[in-house]
Structures are given as C-alpha cells and as structure tokens.
Design goal:
It is a single chain. The radius of gyration is 34 Å and the shape is flat. α2 packs across α5, α8 packs across α11 and α10 packs across α11. The chain has a two-stranded antiparallel ribbon. The chain folds into three domains: about 45 residues; about 130 residues, Cytochrome c-like domain (Cytochrome Bc1 Complex, Chain D, domain 2), CATH 1.10.760.10; about 80 residues, no CATH class. It is built from eleven helices and two strands; from the N terminus they run αβαααααβααααα. By secondary structure, it is mainly alpha-helical.
C-alpha cells in the first residue's frame, strides 16, 4: 500500500509507537540525570577523606584521615610565639576549638562530659579525673595548673603529656576543661598567669617531621634487616683482641644494631660509656662495664674503626 493509500488507523499506530519510544527515552534520560545528581555525589562524599587539621596544627593532635596512625607525611616547621592576649581569656572561638580537641584526645578516658567515665576509664588506676567536681585535682584546677598537666602529663597515672598539641590549642583545651565544671574555680594566681603569658610570648613551637606508622615500621624492618650480626673471631683465636670482644659481646645481633646506631663515633669515651650503660639489652655484657680505658679503646676501635684513646667509662 502507498503512502497516499495509508489509512488513519495506520497513522495512529505509528504515532503511538513514536510516542512510546519518546516516553521510554525520556524515562531513561531522567533516570541517569537523577543518578548523577543524587547517587554520584553521595558516593563521592563517602570516599572523601575527613577534613584535615588547620595548617598550623600538628597532625598527631587531630583525627585527620580515617586512621590517625596513617596520617599523611608532613614536613616539620617552626611556628612563631603566641600573643597571650589571644589565648589567655576564654571566648566562644577558643571554647569551640577546645571542644574539638577534647573530643579527639580526651573523651576515651574522661568521657564526653568530662566526668571521668570514658570507655578506657575502667582500665586505669587511678581513674581519670572528673572535671565536673572540685575534689582530688592533683595539680589544681587553675589555668596555669591545667596547662601544665596537659603539657607534661601526671606521673604514675594514665595521663600522658600532650605536648605535641600547639600551645594555643592547649590553652583552648584548658578553657574547655574548666567550662565542664560548674563549681567555683577561685581566683587565679597573677604570678602564675604572668609566667604563662611570658612563656607564650617568648617561645615558639616546633612541629616535627611526621610519617605514617606503617612507613616507619617498614623503614625500621628494612634497617634492622640490613645490619648483619657482628662476626666474632673463632674460639681458636686466643689473641687479646679476640678474647676481649668475646668477653664484651653476648649477643652479636643486638650488638651489631647498637654499633650501627652509634652516631657519636668521634668521642670514644662517650661511646664506651653508652654501650656499658645499655648492657645487656644492647648486646654487650654487663661485666664489660668493669673494663679499663685501654680495653674499651680496643673494643671501640675494633667495632667502629676509631683509634683514639678512651677514658674510663
């Protein structure tokens, strides 16, 4: 049948088929559009690393990436001193920063609200401090007291030193810790505050180089594997030097690592004293501490290639 002879029914069927194809194509296009607008951004958000700490904040003091131990390598740098006026008095910005640091570093022991009931509290003796109560603070709850505790830790407790946190951030943490306790903290000691302010004003902060723990372990394993054990002379060798080395070295593997790690090789007396003090964990015999200067000189000369005289260690 020619086009001129097409019936209205035929035209209607073709138009209906075209409309169906158009609807199907439109549905597919809309589906892809919705996928691109909704699903793809959600997947990208899931894969995106957590926000990095501010550029002046040491990586160890923040959560950083998913695994804090695997934070990216960073080059160390020196930061200038802090203006005391910007950190000594609490304000909303400092308190907000302190809260972030508290959640990152303190809640595992002290709990979310600072009541000393964090997940790790039951494993510690004595238990972590309850910041909401005034009783039993070992170093006091004034500004300078808390700053010192955060900076140096508390010997004999689970409270470690958090000196890797920048001084300004430590002060933010001080203000937040104090805000957790609604009790009267009393008047501050002007001399203590002045000493703290002088410390901020006169001393900058050094951020050391950092590498991921996995890389550090890999380097340690490689370095250890590269150090062969010391080759002591056979028992048949009765020379004074051979006898001396056999007497002084009890573990050729550990002694080899000790010798390889010795950097101060110009001062034989210092080297000898250090080796004697580290026995027997460093591979040397404890009895070697009783050797005289000439004997230690021979040992050091044989192991590190130095011939200078050594004094009595």
């Amino acid at each position: 049948m020619s086009d001129e002879q097409s019936t209205p029914t035929t035209w209607g069927s073709e138009a209906k088929g075209l409309a169906n194809r158009f609807a199907l194509g439109s549905g597919v296009a809309v589906t892809f559009l919705l996928f691109g607008l909704i699903v793809v951004p959600a997947l990208l958000r899931e894969r995106r690393p957590l926000p990095r700490p501010p550029s002046d904040q040491p990586a160890a003091a923040s959560v950083g990436w998913l695994d804090q131990a695997e934070t990216p390598a960073s080059k160390g740098r020196d930061l200038p001193p802090v203006d005391p006026a910007t950190v000594m008095t609490p304000n909303p910005k400092l308190l907000a920063r302190g809260e972030v640091l508290f959640k990152q570093n303190c809640t595992s022991c002290h709990g979310e609200s600072g009541q000393g009931n964090g997940p790790a509290a039951g494993t510690l003796n004595p238990r972590p401090r309850n910041f909401t109560q005034p009783a039993d603070w070992k170093r006091g709850f004034h500004v300078a007291d808390i700053f010192t505790t955060i900076s140096t830790g508390v010997k004999g407790t689970g409270m470690a030193a958090f000196d890797f946190i920048m001084p300004a951030d430590r002060m933010a943490l001080v203000h937040y810790v104090r805000s957790l306790g609604g009790f009267d903290h009393g008047a501050e000691d002007p001399k203590a505050l002045q000493a703290l302010a002088d410390q901020f004003r006169s001393k900058g902060f050094h951020i050391p180089n950092r590498i991921p723990v996995s890389l550090a372990i890999k380097k340690m394993v490689t370095e250890q594997a590269m150090v062969p054990p010391l080759q002591l002379r056979p028992a048949e060798d009765k020379s004074a030097s051979a006898e001396l080395l056999r007497f002084a070295i009890v573990d050729p593997f550990r002694a080899a690592r000790t010798v390889a790690a010795t950097t101060n090789r110009g001062d034989l007396s210092t080297v000898a004293r250090a080796w004697a003090a580290g026995a027997p964990d460093n591979g040397f015999a404890p009895a070697a501490a009783g050797l005289n200067a000439a004997e230690w000189s021979e040992i050091v000369r044989a192991l590190v290639g130095r011939r200078e005289e050594a004094r009595q260690p």
